[in-house]
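tool_call predict_complex ligand=6-O-phosphono-alpha-D-glucopyranose
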Amino acid sequence: QFAQKDGFRFFMEKEIYEQSTVVSDCMLGRIADKSISFDEIDSSIIEGINEIKICACGTSYHAGLTASYLFERLSKVKCNVEIASEFRYKEPLLTTDTLFVVISQSGETADTLEALKMAKDAGLKTLVVCNVDNSSMTRTADATILTRAGIEKGVASTKAFSTQTVVLWMLALYFAKAKNVISSEKMQEELHALREVPKSLVVNDKIHEKTRRLSKRYLHGHGFFFIGRDVFFPLALEGALKLKEISYLHAEGYPAGEMKHGPIALADPELFTIALMPQNLLYDKIKSNVEELSARDSTICAISPLDFELADDFIKTAKTDHYMLEFFEMLVALQLLSMEISIRLGNDVDMPRNLAKSVTVE
Ligand code: G6P
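tool_result ok
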């Protein structure tokens, strides 16, 4: 409750700049030479588990969607993700070979807490990835992994998301090792990449300056599509949510390959497409999706380490050798872009209209 802005204009800005440090804290003592360890859990948590179900709301839901790709790819466990408010009333089928994971910054979101209680009552093993110790969710779940992001004041979540994503990536590797489904070479590659995350989250002055310049024109947009594939799809959803939350501009996140099934009908020069184009994952696929949009005169802002000649605007991220590092590089760019647009519009970045930091009522 004593958080200060420390010279930053808004808490959100401070929290974006803090991400590199808090993510280091989040990894401290959890990355060993050849494996991941969590003091809070032991490997029995994954024993007898055939499926992981994730439940969350808002930005935490986006971390969950990102994790679903990592759990299937790395841990070889079936994983699905649900929005907590939907899950509660759909009469879900729950089986005890499912590990139920909830993700929450506050640990108090009513819908997520209720979903957790339902899973517990049905006899499932439950785990919460949470930023607040001794919150309702950490008191309810069988096990807790804390994200150690520190107090987050900005209503638009930033460092909570990056730490959640890192915890979930580490958890995917932890499960992979416990189930013996990852080679030691692959594990080394992943651990190496994880150690580089704090570097990828350092705010690059040039990128910040670029988002400041782009914000001048982009505040006039009347529609934004954020597009990506694989984990860059949840990242696109998160980019769009940030813009909506604090700029009140209409934005949608979409899986890039799905644009041709409807949304591309909206393409025109007033439609801004923010395209997440990582070098290390499905580059050719996203490139051809973006080419289609460009051919229909959509204004393209590419975020990529690779030059892309059809881009009207370009945010150049650092070259790395792992797609998750690109994910964090792009995350910072998206956060800065929405913040700069919001500032230029004169909005209250930290306390956007109609929103609350923690939604404890249904
Ligand atoms: C609110 C906040 C969002 C947050 C969501 C879930 O809507 O404004 O930023 O992502 O709740 O909160 P939680 O604390 O459960 O992560």
